[in-house]
């Protein structure tokens, strides 16, 4: 089915989280027991207050010198006794109804490997890792190809798929050919991008009619059937 892939579809709901007052040793034991690289820290309402990673735990074992904000934060963590002092805050979170592409962008921009997932009220609902996101993009090229042709072109756009060239390689969709109107090009590209497993869309579509400047009641130049073949810039 064509559509955005929500984080809720790939996240883990059995989350190992800790309250703000959890002692350092209890946090360490939890990570070891669950075999995870980090855990969200939640307040008394279940909202995510921060995140503790193994890197935060290691701060206690390193001597920190200097006077800048980074050095002060490092010393605070080195002296931490409870989760509230050990965690990195504020946490980078994502909504359960956000798309997996958004989650991937956040992980990349913030340099993290996992994100706490929150519900509409901001309460912890799960956690999503890079490994969870990768599984979305492992869809076979043949399945992507069939969906682009059968659902996007045939059902959504009412276009004969034989009239366009479509190829899929490693999740990259290449599409070319000529459609009736210029306004159809952007819509086709957007629908293809929303197909699960699509990594990139390379479009070389052209249009018979440039309808960007036409009013709804205005016929094309040259009469009802007049056409101007154009390339999309």
Oligomer: single chain
CATH superfamily of the largest domain: CBS-domain
Global Rg:
25 Å
List the uncertain runs: 221-230
Counted up, domains total 2
H-E order:
EHEEHHHEHEEHHEEHEE
Shape estimate: elongated
Largest sheet: 4 strands, mixed
Strand content: 15-25%
- Measured as a percent range, the helix fraction is 25-40%
Give the structural class: alpha/beta
Question: Can you tell me the CATH topology of the largest domain?
Answer: CBS-domain
Strand order of the largest sheet: 7-8-9-10
Report the span from N to C terminus. Answer: 30 Å
Number of helices: 8
> In the CATH hierarchy, what is the class of the largest domain?
Alpha Beta
CATH second-level architecture of the largest domain: Roll
Calculate the mean pLDDT score and round it. Answer: 84
Total DSSP E strands = 10
